[in-house]
Every structure is written in C-alpha cells, then in structure tokens.
C-alpha cells in the first residue's frame, strides 16, 4: 500500500512538473511532443512507455537464415565490395548499429503507423565520403544500405558551399525524439547533391567534406521517388531511384532519400543519383558465380492445392501437340519442332502468327493441364542500375490460364465461367542481387499487369536456407510473397487471387535453363515475338445477364464496373506474348 501511494505521488508531481515546464516551452514555440527526448531521459515512471523503442522491428538487424556462400574467383570484379564507375570508386555500406548512427526517430506515421528512423553512416573506409543519409520505416527489421564514394581524380567530389532547409518536424504534433531538420547541400557550379543531411538542431551542418559531398554533374543523372518511406500530414520521405532504368541505363541507385514538405519555401533544386560512366559490365557475375547465386536464392514456388493448370517446360508443350497458326491459312496449322526451331523469328506482334493446341479433346486437355515433372524455369541475367546490381529474372511457362473467380459483396467466390481462360501464360519472379557483395536485396513478384517489389527482410524463406517462398495464385498464376486472398480491382470486391501451400511445389533451382544474358546463346522460341495463344472473345454480357437475375437492380451497375476492371488478357481479348516482348525485358520492373 505504501509503495502504491509513493508511485501515485510521483505521477502527481510529474504532471505538475510538466504543466510548469510546458509554460516555459510555450514561450519558445515548442510543445511536449517535440521534447519527448527530454521526457524520456527522466526515467520511470516519468518515461512515456508508448514512446519506448523496445520491440520495434527496426531495433533488430535483419540476417539471412543461412550464411551467404563464398563466390568462386573468376577474374572479374563481382563481389569485390567496391566498383569503379569512372572517376568515382563507390562502396556499399550496410546499415546496422555497428556501421551507422541513428540521428532521429518518430513513432507514428508511415507503414503501420510505426514511424521512421534516420541513420547516418559512420563506419566509412578511408578516403571515402558520405553522399547522404538513410531512412527506413520502423515496421520492419533494419535492412538497407547506402553508397559512399572515393574521388579517384581529385576533382569529382566537392564540399557544399551552403545548405538550404527543405523541411522540419517542429510543427508536427507527433511522437518523436525531438524535432528533425532536413538540409539539402547547395553545391558549387558543375556539381550536384545526391542526398540530404539531417540534424536535430536548427543550426546548419558543417560545410566540411566529411559532413557530405557534392558530385561532379557529369557523374550524376536525374533521380525520382522510388517508394515512400514515411508520410504524415504534409510531409513525405521517399527513397530515390534513377529516373531512367534498364539494361543499358547508367543511373545508379544510391540509397539516399528526399523530403517533401507542402508549402515549405523556398523550393530546393532537384536531387540526383550517381552515374556509372565506365559501365563495362566487369562487376557482373560470371557463369559460375551466377550458378552459385541461383543455387542460393532460387525461389521455392507453391501452387494452390486446387490448381488444375500446372506449369511445364516449353519443349514439353511443343512435343505434345502445340501448333503454329498463320493468318489466312488457319485451317492448316504447322506442328512446332520440340526446340521451336521452325517458329518465325523477330518481327513484331502483328497478329500474323499465333500458337494453339490440338483440336482432339483428350490431347488438348493433356497439354492444358501441364506437366510438373518436366517443369523448368528460364533465366534472364541482366544488369540493373548501371551494372551495380544483377537481375536474375525467373520465367515460368503455364500452358493454360484457368478461369477467374469474383468476390462481390456477400458472394465470396463466384465463378466467371470461361472468362479469364486462355492458352499460354508467362509469369516471372525477379531476384535483384547486389554486385558489391552478392546479397539478395529485393524480389519482384509479377501480378497480372503489374507487380510488387519486396525487400529481402520482408520475405518468407524456406526453412534452413535463403530461398524465398513464392505463391502462385489459383488459375491466374500471379506471383505473391504471402499466402491468403488478394482482391484485384480495389475495395472489398474484386477478382480473387487465392494463394496457399500445397504438395504441388518445386525448387526453381532444380531444373532451370539460362536463356539470355551476356554470352548466352538464346533458344529459337525466345525470339518468337508473336502470340503464344489465339485471340479469343468471351461473352461477358451473357455472364452479366445470368448473374443479374439474382442481384437487385442497384447492384448490377457495380458488378459491371468491376468486370470492366479485369485485365484484357484475363478477359480473353488478346493472346499473351512471350518474355522478350515484355517492356521489362530491357527495362525495369513495373511497380509503384
């Protein structure tokens, strides 16, 4: 009882103290929430327990389930920790408690409303300099990196001549460790800034080069927002990526971020990214190194337990009755050679040719069902971000795409008849691997007309290894990182994507073929640019009329709008094309 009384008295005195203290803070225009770091320093029972960082995912650094493999030395520069980009040597600093210092943190806003943390890299190799700070949401384990640079000519890096404030959190009534001030370097003529400096004081940072460096303009490229890291009210923090991306693009992902605050003046000049002016592909992995990488990170793919239409190898489909049709001569289709050597090469998707299967019902059904035993994945090895990363694009072929199912209001799963069915279905997953150290950074999951990019720290891995788990949706074969149901179309209604574990699964690393990349001889079927299935039209009006009989009139319009959101290929209005026709073949993955 005595202990309870003493604790009560402490709390009473504490709130009286805060009231008096708030009066003095009010004179300076600050408030209780912007002085959280001071309150937390008082200790229990004065420390606000909901502001404690204990238990935040970001407090734990992500580690891969298994040790990373040692790479065979093949004479190249892959995995050598630094890359010569022509005038600059850059290295990748992994953000952790031992390599960086947390400058500032807030406890709300952003993903899951858990806030964001800002880190300054501190463990930097000799003669290398910072280009900016790193930002990460608090709702995930600490996993990220930032590039630092070394001037190899003596004129490619310069200290800033001044700073301009681009935002601060002094007016935001949020739970934070004091206010944060975001500063953009103002660079000498002919130099650009690629990142921001963050302080917890309104005083400008030092102008010394050890604080932050500007980069000569011809060693930079335009950047743009990649993904938003933290957003609250009128402030947004976004990671930056090169504006131009693809296999021949020289822009380099630097690991820095931008800060945009509404109505904050003056507007700063744009931030840039680095540019690999050397771009000789010497940092790309060799054939042997690629083999080791894929053995380590090859995805484990789960098909839905009710999946009727399995994947197969391309050669299996050709050998079991795939036919080449030509416009104007449709009645005399040509059997395709097992290796696809008699397919038309090059050209464009001009509707002149398309593939289909045998008319015989039994033989056609056999091909449509696929063959899991023959399944192999097809790898495209391509440089990304100025050859500082390697994309291993894992392509899968499904001979047939099944029909779609709809969730609409109280109807959990409504079959759309034959809507969504079509011959030939190409899907892919992309492993994005750092050429600095061979670590898997992100995995891209293709989902119909778009996709999702997931950081390694947010992936599910097969037990005892570094193989990410991939879930293929029922009938549609879209790729997802988690099981469950995802509705396509927005809201609480849409086309169902059902994912679940089953005994229909395989390790993509068991059977694969490298079909494209530096020094790779491409198979003939890869350069077939026409349709992998016939153009078909489904009578959506018949389906709508049949369903409308059981729905009130005021719900029919909503159903029609939802149906119109189905992708064209799912509605059967056009036949699918092969991997090399996709815009992502030479470009970056499509995500937002």
Automatic annotation (TrEMBL):
What keywords does the record list, in alphabetical order? Signal
Q: Which residues form the signal peptide?
A: 1-26
Pfam families, per database record: Vps62 (PF06101)
What protein does this entry describe? Answer: Vacuolar protein sorting-associated protein 62
């Amino acid at each position: 009882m005595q202990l309870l009384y003493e604790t009560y008295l402490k709390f009473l005195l504490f709130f009286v103290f805060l009231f008096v203290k708030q009066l003095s803070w009010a004179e300076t225009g600050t408030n209780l929430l912007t002085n959280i770091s001071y309150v937390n320093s008082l200790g229990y029972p004065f420390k606000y327990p909901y502001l404690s960082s204990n238990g935040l995912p970001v407090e734990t650094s992500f580690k891969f389930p298994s040790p990373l493999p040692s790479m065979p030395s093949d004479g190249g520069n892959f995995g050598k920790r630094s890359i010569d980009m022509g005038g600059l040597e850059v290295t990748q600093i992994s953000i952790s408690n031992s390599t960086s210092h947390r400058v500032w943190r807030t406890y709300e806003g952003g993903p899951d409303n858990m806030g964001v943390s800002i880190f300054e890299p501190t463990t930097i190799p000799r003669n290398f300099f910072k280009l900016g700070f790193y930002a990460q949401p608090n709702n995930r384990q600490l996993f990220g990196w930032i590039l630092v640079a070394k001037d190899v000519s003596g004129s490619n890096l310069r200290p800033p001549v001044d700073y301009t404030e681009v935002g601060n959190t002094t007016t935001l009534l949020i739970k934070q460790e004091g206010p944060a001030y975001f500063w953009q370097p103002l660079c000498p003529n002919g130099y650009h800034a690629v990142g921001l400096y963050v302080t917890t004081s309104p005083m400008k940072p030092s102008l010394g080069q050890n604080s932050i460096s500007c980069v000569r303009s011809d060693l930079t490229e335009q950047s743009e927002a990649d993904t938003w890291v933290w957003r609250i009210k009128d402030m947004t923090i976004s990671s930056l990526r090169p504006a131009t991306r693809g296999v021949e693009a020289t822009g380099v992902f630097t690991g820095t971020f931008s800060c945009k605050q509404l109505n904050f003046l003056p507007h700063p000049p744009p931030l840039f990214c680095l540019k690999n002016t050397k771009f000789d592909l010497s940092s790309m992995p060799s054939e042997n190194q690629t083999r080791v990488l894929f053995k380590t990170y090859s995805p484990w793919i789960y098909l839905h337990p009710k999946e009727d239409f399995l994947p197969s190898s391309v050669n299996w489909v050709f050998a079991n009755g795939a036919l080449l049709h030509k416009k104007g001569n449709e009645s005399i289709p040509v059997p395709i050679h097992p290796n696809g050597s008699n397919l038309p090469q090059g050209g464009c998707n001009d509707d002149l040719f398309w593939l289909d299967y045998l008319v015989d019902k039994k033989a056609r059904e056999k091909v449509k069902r696929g063959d899991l035993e023959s399944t192999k994945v097809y790898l495209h090895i391509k440089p990304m971000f100025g050859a500082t990363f390697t994309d291993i694009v894992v392509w899968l072929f499904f001979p047939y795409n099944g029909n779609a199912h709809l969730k609409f209001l109280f109807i959990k799963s409504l079959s759309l008849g034959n809507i969504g069915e079509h011959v030939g279905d190409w899907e892919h997953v992309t492993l994005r691997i750092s050429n600095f150290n061979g670590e898997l950074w992100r995995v891209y999951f293709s989902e119909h007309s778009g996709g999702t990019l997931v950081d390694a720290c947010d992936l599910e891995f097969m037990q005892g290894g570094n193989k990410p788990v991939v879930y293929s949706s029922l009938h549609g074969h879209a790729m997802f990182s988690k099981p469950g149901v995802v509705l396509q179309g927005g809201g609480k209604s849409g086309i169902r994507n059902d994912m679940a574990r089953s005994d229909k699964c395989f390790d993509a690393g068991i059977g694969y073929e490298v079909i494209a990349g530096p020094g790779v001889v491409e198979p003939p079927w890869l350069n077939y640019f026409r349709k992998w299935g016939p153009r078909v039209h489904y009578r959506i009006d018949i389906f709508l009329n049949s369903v409308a009989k059981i729905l009130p009139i005021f719900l029919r319009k909503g159903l029609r709008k939802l149906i119109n959101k189905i992708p064209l290929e799912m509605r059967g209005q056009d036949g699918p094309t092969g991997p090399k026709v996709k815009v992502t073949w030479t470009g970056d993955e499509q995500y937002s």
